Amino acid sequence: MRRHLLAGFAAVLPLLLGLSSCASNENSEGLTKVDDLLTRVEQVQIESLVAREKASAAFDALGAIVAPDFQGDPMLAYGDLVKSIDDSKAQAKKLEMSVEPMKRTADGVFQSWTKDLEKFGNTNLRQQSQSRLAETRSRYSAVHDSAVAALVSINAFNSDLSDQALFLEHDFNVTAVTVIAAEIPALTSQARDLGRRLNACVSASKDYIACSALRGQLEDPEAAPAAPANKAAAAPPRRLPNPMAEPGAEAELAEAESGASTTTAPARRRPRTGANPTGTPEAAPPAQPAPEAVATQPLTQGATQPTSQPAKPLPVLGPPQPKPETDLNAQPKPAPVAPGGGGER
After folding, report:
1. Per-domain residue ranges for the chain?
2. What are the CA-CA distances from residue 314 to residues 230, 302, 305, 307, 317 (Å)?
3. 207 touches 139 (CB < 8 A)
4. Cβ–Cβ < 8 Å for 63, 47
5. How far apart are CA 4 and CA 9, in angstroms?
6. pLDDT-derived band of residue 323, with 50, 70 and 90 as boundaries?
7. Is the dihedral of CA 271, 275, 277, 279 positive or negative?
8. Other C-beta atoms within 10 Å of 252: how many?
9. Residue range 122-172, pLDDT digits in tens
10. Cβ neighbours of residue 258 closer than 8 Å, sequence gap 6 or more
């Protein structure tokens, strides 16, 4: 009898283990779907960021062509514009291809979540889970809707840029560029709208990931290593204000055009009076008498006047000297009278 029981238990044990494994797989499958959806949302976020960079580069390429001070090679400038537009279109396609897989994964997650609500025996937990489901679905809808809106905007933006390039392909001269420049204000407004929509998609994705990430998966922003300084290549000077650029770019451009200085170098100080900037010893200058003293000081033979006045011959002290005979204006002087003598007879 014991042998029969052991044999029966040995036959049933693999079946029990298989059922337990199936139940375990079903329970972990839900978390696997949640993790897959997080991966899809992260991909949409990344593609949105890259799409903004590519569209911004295309806008800058057009701005370089219509700049009044354009001095570059027209062939190279037009080639850069066409390449930038193609890159923006390719990135828009990647963004579009990342939205549909996200939607399929989200449909599976929310269907499974809704179905499992009936398995709760605890009414309070069921209500809490249902509320969490509604919140998560709302956050996901924000990601999906913003991504779709960004796709519509970026496709229209790329199409308009392609029209600009097509216009210049057979007519790239001063007059044609003037026609293109007239379209810049409308294109700038369109770029601003595209930047807002892409930023909204990125923000919604971040919000979903922050609220739905599995325990221990979310990175601490403060613990993330800082990016090494001076590693990124310097961006080329922007010809036109780009609404899709990072915050502060328009202010920097306005300051550059107005000549304002944004340097962080310390202010230069005036040197102190009598300071020797070279650091070498200097002889002390001779003391100069005060102006009043110079004016009242009697002049002696051999004395010199201040160097600020031209040098003049100094008079010799003593009896006056007769002038030379060559002086035509000289008056004859009477002969000296001998002492004790009478007057002239």
Report:
1. 34-218
2. 74, 8, 10, 15, 9
3. yes
4. no
5. 9
6. low
7. negative
8. 14
9. 999 999 999 999 999 999 999 999 999 999 999 999 999 999 999 999 999
10. none
| Angle made by CA atoms 162, 167, 170, in degrees to the nearest 5 | 125
**In b/e form, how buried is each residue of 20-36, taking b as 16+ CB within 10 angstroms?**
eeeeeeeeeeeeebbbb
CA pair distance 217, 207, nearest whole angstrom: 14
Counting every residue written for the chain, the total comes to 345
Confidence of residue 4 (pLDDT cuts 50, 70, 90): low
Question: Model confidence over 274-310: pLDDT tens digits?
Answer: 555 444 444 455 555 544 444 444 444 444 444 445 5
- SS3 string, the chain, reads CHHHHHHHHHHHHHHHHHHHHHHHHHHHHHHHHHHHHHHHHHHHHHHHHHHHHHHHHHHHHHHHHHCCCCCCCHHHHHHHHHHHHHHHHHHHHHHHHHHHHHHHHHHHHHHHHHHHHHHCCCHHHHHHHHHHHHHHHHHHHHHHHHHHHHHHHHHHHHHHHHHHHHHHHCCCCHHHHHHHHCCHHHHHHHHHHHHHHHHHHHHHHHHHHHHHCCCCCCCCCCCCCCCCCCCCCCCCCCCCCCCCCCCCHHHHHHHHHHCCCCCCCCCCCCCCCCCCCCCCCCCCCCCCCCHHHHHHCCCCCCCCCCCCCCCCCCCCCCCCCCCCCCCCCCCCCCCCCCCCCCCCC
Both tokens assigned to 126: 């069921």
Rounded distance, CA 200 to CA 198, Å?
5
CA atoms within 13 A on the CB side of 246: 3
How distant, in Å, are the alpha carbons of 104, 125, 201, 333 from that of 144? 11, 28, 8, 126
137 C-beta neighbours (distance < 10 Å), count = 15
